[in-house]
Amino acid sequence: MKNKNLNGFKLNLGQLTIPIIAICLLIIFNLIRDPGFFAIEITHNNDGNAVLAGNLISIINGASELAILAMGMTLVTAACGGQDISVGAAAAIAGSAFVKILKSTESINGGTVLFALLFACIVAMLFGTFNGTLVAVFKIQPMIATLILYTCGRSIAYWINGGATPTVSSPIINAIGSFIPGIPVPTPVLIVITVAVIFKLVFHFTSLELLTQSVGINGSAARLNGINATFIKLLSFIILGACVAVAGCIGVSRLGLINHETLLIDVEMDAILAVAIGGNNLGGGKFKISGSIIGAYVIQMLTITLYAMKVSSTDVKAYKAIVIVLLVVIGSPVIKARFAKLWSRFQSGRQKVSTKGAE
Amino acid sequence: MQDKVLLQMRQIEKRFPGVRALDGVDFTLREGEIHALMGENGAGKSTLIKVLTGVYQMDGGEIKLDGELITIRSPQDAQNSGISTVYQEITLCPNLTVAENIFIGREDSTWVRHKDYEKRADEILGKLGIPARSRQQLGDCSLAVQQMVAIARAVDMKCKVLILDEPTSSLDDKEVNMLFDLMRSLKSQGVGIIFVTHFLEQVYEVSDRITVLRNGELVGEYLTEELPQVELVAKMIGKELDELSSLREEPDIVVEEKEVFYNAKGLSSSAALPFDFSIRKGEVNGFTGLLGSGRSESVRAIFGADKVTGGSVSIKGKPVKITRPVEAMKNGIGYLAEDRKRDGIIADLSVRENIILALQVMNGFFKPISRSESEAFADEYIKVLNIKTASRETPIGSLSGGNQQKVILARWLLTHPDYLILDEPTRGIDVGTKLEIQKLVLKLAEEGVSVTFISSEVEEMLRTCSRLIVMRDRHVVGELKGSDLNQEQVMKTIAGGEAKDEE
Amino acid sequence: MNQKIGVRREPLTDTQLLMTITIFIFFGMYLLAMLLLGGGFLRAQQVFDMLNDNASLIIVSCGLTIVMIGGGIDISVGAVTSLVVMSCVLYLNGGGNIFVSILLALGIGLAFGLVHGFLISYLEIQPFIVTLAGMFFARGMTTILSVNPQKVAHEGFAKLRDVKIEIPWLGYVANNGNVVPARMELGVVIALVCLVLIFILLKFIKLGRAFYAIGGNQQSALMLGINVKRTRFISYVISGLLSGISGYVFMMHTGAGNATNAAGMEMNAIASSIIGGTLLTGGVGNVAGTFFGTMTLTTIKKIVVSSGLKEPWWQSITTGGMLCFFILLQSVVLGQRAKRKKS
Q1: Cα distance from A331 to chain C (closest Cα, Å)?
Q2: Strand pairing partners for B263?
Q3: Which of A289, A333, B32, C297 lies most in the core, judged by the most C-beta atoms within 10 Å?
Q4: ipTM value of the model?
Q5: Domains located in chain B, CATH noted
Q6: Contact, B304 vs B328, CB < 8 A?
Q7: Four-point Cα dihedral A125, A127, A132, A137, nearest 10
Q8: Average pLDDT, chain A
């Protein structure tokens, strides 16, 4: 009986095994390298607020946009069995729309920021609908369909900005990008938590999770159970659009300006990677949002670790690649099958006894 | 010449965990003979074919080709020794030309000499009378022609034994005739053909000999002309005395008076020809006929599973439109699909999630079934249907076939349908579960649910149904009730009345 | 009778159909540009410029086309090109020899191809992830080698770089009355040679047809006796090798190494292949189409510039629009075809 429980636990962890192991290894590695690596201290920033600082905070803070995008990407991956490579470009568009509204108002207050954020969301969701229509209605592979926006998205953002990189300065924008006065936790982290909670609530109050998985795993059976697969796929892209807008606005708020070329550059690759590291099958089907979130933090922790080891920001990619390859090789079906064989040979004696017992 | 033995399989054994798929089966193929291999689902035909083509390794027995003992380890091995197979699904590349499909993978040089191949391909096609041109893209040809191209490839590889696995199931009459002409011409060239099909007429049209399998055992080998059609059906289906023939206790009379629940006139779909059908409340009826007779296609049309192309439908006398599964579900119809793997289970999801799926869809997007509620549902049905699973969170894919089927059944029962369509619910599952499902069907009927039950096993249907609709070659050919409901009558109707009159 | 069948024109295959559409659109567009915009478009040098600028893109697109025909994807090609450029520049500046630098370029490309191929076909890891890692690795290595732009200062190389093929009769008369001959760089010749070789490989060699087979239906290809894993492996190796060649050609064109070299080239290459009629689903495509795909992309950019849309964003927006047009067109054309076949 005890054994069975243990097995159940193992199964539950299953998908999360690799990301959790990865994060543990990184933590151990850092602690050995520098025992004070994760020390958190309270400092005072320029505005005189008491805020948390330290490597751990910068990891958690820095991964915010990635984590939000990874959540949306997980849904698209699960429903469509493919990925959206246009999220970075779409985030630039959303950010530009955000700034455009802020620039066109006389004074930036809470209301206008909220309105601008809503507007950015609508714009990004429209582009999501465009991608989603190509995928769900025209049955074009997600990567090809989103290649269109990937190609021209940043230029559209540039066009919205009118060929400039406008800046916005306002205490509210500053608060979104860094800290709200009186709260020591970086605001992007709070936003990630909010988005994660919204996802949780959506899954709780709608049947989205079950339907998405069904469509992704077995489209034919899903249809015979009355599920509208086209709608589910479209919806996943629209939700990703909302995530993209939020991530874009955080990115803009951090710097106080919109630069269409550099805002969330290459984030699409990282987001897909986060989904994969989180143990989600890139071919669609069963998914765990939590895996993708952990995946995002794994990537960021890796990056910060490399920075701490005096690797320059441009070189980080090379080391990241090696870690990715190691992770996917461990997770590869062939390697897994090999291990399973070895394991079963190792266990065969014991298992015989236990199955007899069960019968 | 006719009697020279080409292929001999003796005492073939094949076991799967818990099942004896083949139990000492003999099979003999002579030169220049078309040999039909017959049997219902689970009889072991496909296992036998797979052993012969190297997809499975046999556990016992021997295979002799031209008198020599051979071992076949892979499909490649089989091809090299002269055993070629043409499967129901085309195993060619639709994006290449006909000529390339004939020669790819066995070119003798690094260079592809298109002109040469095309010339040779045209020769082969011409010789075999296949209406295709060598430079056509294969995907542009009809399925029948694609199949023939596959045969041409096999012939050009100098095959001695050609296995045709359900080649005619997606062809129309004209195409079937073309295929038969091709088979006859190959036969005259001395090729031995193993023909697997479910169409009785076709067997009588082309085959010389018939081997019948049932439950993994050899029933016998017969000359086609000496075996009347009705006897063949009897041999395929078997006539074992059945331990539970008293399952049903005169429900017919009661049903006759109940109101009609579902009525369709001239209903047709992209896969089914127009047919009329109605069912009363609390009635259990059945569609029977051999595989491929159109029984599944008909019930799929009722559920809106294929594209509905015509006909009018009313439920409880009120006209309704059912073109999509969700509309059928909203009208209280449930459908357990024939192909459990492809159309039923969502393999990676848990038993619990699979059970609540249909109810969830009917409840709508914004009314999710809460975790505790779904657990309660799952536990209830796991208990009621006696589903053997480690826990309700076990992925359904890891359950045995019978238990998977019960989960799908639970899924539909949970929606409390007024009308439940069960297409082969007992296929590939153990006897105990079969009986449980049959009992369940009768219990549902007592509770006022209308049920359509389809099974390849006639006894099962006799035991449960009060009315049988018999289909053959995609047409309804009869409806049996009351005293006509016996095996003999069913078989006669399936086989086409007095078999010989038909020919 | 046989003669008659030989003469008879068959309906185009999917590959031919999509390629023909692209070629027609390319020529139509170019003709329109000549008529409406005139200017540079009337000169042969315009075409040669397009070739000179895009020689390396053509080479990587060919490799990508092979991978895509086999049903895969390789997004590392741009990064590998960039890495090759930087490695060769540094090697030459360190006083290396030309011949060895060429080997170095090929070696780097080959190494990437081998690793990708192994991970994808023998360990069955998703191609997107593997080549994404390859892309990261190559980009990272490039900056590790040097963050600063490096100019080649190597005499032998300068000579090689300046080799230009001049075609006087395609030249034009400049304002000062001198005849300016049309100039084509050596890289273009290499690109065209690669193009022809791959065209032959795909059309007339057993291996080339095997790429189509595994892309068309992997299961069938296996049943038809094709070694699917090895074939897929080779497709990535060829793509890697071509990335190496492309890097060298790129260096001959720019004469310098820069960490941002060939940025976005992978997506341009994918776009070229798609416009040229290669389907990501595999089994359909042709390098001749890819060549015209590259030219179409370039022509659009030239047209945008010449027609007065000077703002920098118009180029990519029109490219995106064009891509959208082609993707939808292909989807509709092939959909219609499938429908017609059924009825």
Answers
A1: 8
A2: B278, B314
A3: C297
A4: 0.84
A5: 5-227 (3.40.50.300), 255-332+420-503 (3.40.50.300), 338-416 (no CATH)
A6: yes
A7: 120
A8: 86
